[in-house]
Amino acid sequence: MRKLTAFNFMTLDGYFEGPKKGEYAWHKHDQSTEETEFAEDKLQYNNTLLLGRVTYDQMASFWPTENAIKMVPDVAKGMNKAEKIVFSNTLKKPEWNNTRVMSGNIVEEIKKLKNTTGSNMTILGSGSIITLFAENGLIDEFQFMINPKAIGSGTPIFKGIKQQLNLKLISSKAFKDGVVVLTYQPA
Q1: Which strand (E) or helix (H) includes residue 53?
Q2: What is the DSSP string of 145-166?
Q3: What is the 3-state secondary structure (H, E, C) of 116-127?
Q4: Residue 54: phi, psi to the nearest 5?
């Protein structure tokens, strides 16, 4: 059985997105050695990356570029090499290499996919998908990279969740710049 992990950036006050749709300027993508090594290490697991359409569009417009390759070459290489699934009912032909589109009942499709052999899967960003999959008991692990910032309003990480989600902390990692990665599993 394949494991499904959710990974997302978050503010101290629980938002993954600012007040405007697609607003992530609050997240300082630090080019520190610590955070770059963390990202490189995570990409070594060869997980299949799961992306919502908005997250896909943002990542596909950055990671294949010369700028990304110059800034963080190993992370860019890993992102571009990774198998990717984008959830979309409108995208027909993805431009980013190693990407396929999944539409329809994505909960049922991921349930089926989890019961196959192959690489584990990681949802990047995509808050509404994290909420949907959490409500359906599909996520085996949650990783939140918490920035030491409060922005006052925005989109909460579990916006619209209909049931209480009980988690247990299994690990934490603090970076020198104040960013903390908290890893949870369902309790």
Answers
A1: helix 53-60
A2: EEES---S-SEETTTT--S---
A3: CCCCCEEEECCH
A4: -65, -45
The pLDDT mean for the chain works out to 90
* Cross-strand partners of 169: 184
The CATH number assigned to the domain with range 16-21+29-119+126-146+155-162 reads 3.40.430.10
Number of H helices, E strands in the chain: 6, 10
What does the domain layout of the chain look like in residue ranges? Answer: 16-21+29-119+126-146+155-162
Query: Residue 138 pLDDT > 70, yes or no?
Result: yes
The separation between CA 116 and the C-alpha centre of its own chain, rounded to angstroms, equals 21
Q: Which residues pair with 182 in a beta bridge?
A: 144, 172
pTM for the whole structure: 0.90
The CA angle 123-124-129, to the nearest 5 degrees, is 55
Q: In degrees rounded to 5, what are phi and psi of residue 38?
A: -60, -50
Q: Strand order in 4-11's β-sheet?
A: 99-102, 84-87, 48-52, 121-124, 4-11, 141-147, 180-186, 167-174
